[in-house]
Batch of 2 targets.
Target 1
Amino acid sequence: MYFFIVFLIFSTPVFAQDIDDLLEEVTGNETEYTTATFKSTRIISGHSIERMPIGQLDFRISHRFGEFNSGAYNLWGLDQANIHFSLEYGITNWLMVGLGRGTYEKTYDGLVKMTILRQSKGDKVMPVSLSYLTTMAVNSLRWDKPYELNFWNRVSYVHQILVARKFNERFSFEINPTYVHRNMVGTEMDPNDLWAVGAGARFKLTKRISLNAEYYYVIPPIHDYRSSKTYNPLSVGFDIETGGHVFQLHLTNSLAMIEKGFIGETTGQWTNGGIHLGFNITRVFALK
Amino acid sequence: MKKIFVILALLASINVAAAPKLVSKTGHVWFYSHTPVEDIEAHNRQSVSILNTETGEIQISILIKSFEFKVALMQEHFNENYMESSKFPKSSFKGNIVHLDKVDFTKDGTYTSDVAGDLTIHGVVKKVTTSGTFEVKDGKVTAKAKFIVSPKDYEIVIPSLVESKIAKEIEITVELPYTE
């Protein structure tokens, strides 16, 4: 009797193994990393946690038209063109670097973005993805004031922690604590340092189209004597993905397409039509 | 004592003969899409299969997200847009060796037979028949097959913008080394 039971126990695994158990055995104890939390390295103007994988080069062209409230004379902003283009490259599978140039203050900019945590399930469980972004921007406008301006006066820096979670196939959310430092500001009453918290979300409408939104809350300085009235940037748009290209079409109250500009120097106001139509086009090239 | 030994040896041999199922855990399935614009290939080295040498029944199962591409972005698109791997995580085949009498799993050699059954891709089940080879060498069996699938047949939508980059007919190769 005992022999029979022992025989049964030992023989069952061999006979009863079915194909699903087998697949589970081979693939089950792996870590599955979340992909496509966002479709592009930008949610709209600001960064998402995504970066270029190793050996891939992203050529981006971003464009913002003028403000709607500039009237029929300017064809509601369409006459005015602001462009930012950049090349961004994945050096390793956690590090991306980029160089760009924008119309806004004739700025040259550089960025370094690192992936620190990746959302995953399976063997290793991580609830969020976390990236760190730092950028440096150099304003290259002609200086017509009588006194000299040295190079470092033109420089500003941004440090940003990007934390995102893809909740399900359709919905991703991101929070970005941000620090902006400007070496030189408009007047001595303006703060050199700005703190802000950004939030961004992606909602997938169809397989290739998603609705994106992005907002940055700039924490007002304790003694606020800022020389120009600025507003918090709010942007809403669509990601349209066409295999290799991502096309982003949006409405935003900010003109600048770099952090220093849209966080600290947004002058457009949604409520009175200070809205820009804009788009980003990205094309990815696999160099390796 | 001798008697017990003989009985044990007998039992052991019966056990082997009574387990006609061969298992493969290191199967390799890959596909190749050729167009003048772009060649795309991806490899899945975690394919599993069970082959019943007595009845000729053969089952293959793979996870879509285990396909590895050279370009990470292609892999993302493959999973997210084309195969929808979160909705349809697996692809499978369940069928039979049509001419089982032509294949002798106990003798070294290379045997060819049609294999027919249900192929499931992207949640769509289709009856397929393809020619497969079974290589028997030193008692080890390796099954191989190469066949063509058309994304359209499995309701995989390819937008017109990338139509020129993805072949209408995609070549799939299966290589399954079995262990007992």
Target 2
Amino acid sequence: MSILSTLQWLEATEFSTGIRESTYVWAYIDGIHVLGLCLFVGLTMFWDLRLLNVVMRRVPVSEIWNRMIPWMTIGFIIMLISGLGLFVSDPVRFYGNIIFRIKVVALALAALNALAFHYGIERKLLDWDTTPTTPTAAKVAGGLSITLWAAIIVAGRLIAYNWFEPLI
Amino acid sequence: MILSLFEWIEKSALGVSVNESLYAFALIESVHLLALAMLGGAVLIVDMRMLGLGLKRLPVAQVAKAARPWLIIGLIAIIATGFPLFASLAAGKYYVNAAFWWKMYFLAAATIYTFTVRQRVAMGDEVRASSGFGKLVALVSLFLWSGVGVMGRAIGFI
């Protein structure tokens, strides 16, 4: 089964048709997606700024990490579920949209960055509590995260415009 | 009176150039969303702290002080990008859009509330800031700012 035929099957399901043809469901899910953005990207941005040694420099890194990670996770789950809901409503059209594909690539890069952080420098996080600044690797991780999430937001908004011919 | 002002804005160089460009509206709207993330995060981190969530080991005033520059930058950026979006169709679309007016009422209320009541409580007595009263102050803030976001999204669906 190809990606396209899977998405065509998905598009024909009752769930997909239901969201697509409803007047309000799509709007409500999109509203949740926008509010979730504040929780997820807003808090992630503060965490990234702490990694970059820009905000709350005197607060131990581990303290911010331990307190914020549950909320960043909740925000991410809200974004993921609402985003999948939006995608499922019209999967073939999204798949054919070049800007949607750019967003997916940027999401994959952000995920790689997060994984690299988790399996790499996160283990040394406690050490940074006692150093005057965060290490270069932490600054790179924070800077990449802010850049990628900003690109994801911009791409997400631009999906709505039909500037390019559909790819399929 | 207001309608003629909106018509004048729509016909101004700013309004016309955003309206006639194929890309301007979309690109400004994208930056508007980036500003929303910054503003939303700066509002949330303080309200959450007052509700006893998130950075709960830090004093409320310290969290509010750290978030303040980002709150101000986010608010300036969101208004600076919001105005050209509004100008492009001030009379034709926004004047007659109920969600737009609700968004403006929520925005005015949320901004005034944040820089007066919430600011005073967050920067004031620490015990009061994290008391039941502090929680109420934070919930009102969350309600007002959520109203801005929800009504903003609703503009496009009316």
